[in-house]
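Service request form, structural biology core

Requester: graduate student, group of Dr. S.
Request type: structure prediction, single chain
Budget code: on file
Notes: please return the result as structure tokens.

Sequence provided:
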Amino acid sequence: MTISDIDSATPAELAPVLHAALQRLGQLGRTGAVALEALVEDSDADFDEAAGWIEEIAAGNLGD
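Core staff response, request fulfilled:
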């Protein structure tokens, strides 16, 4: 998948890419977090929504 495919990706196509990217950011630690933060704007509602869902998944609260 390329970045240009993201806008039309289905959840099933996008989830493995996001999972791999999040794992890699975790491996990079603070350096990865700082690189991501540089891309996120304060008023990015879509990012805030996604971050909330990631928190739910990490807490084990989402379920099937």
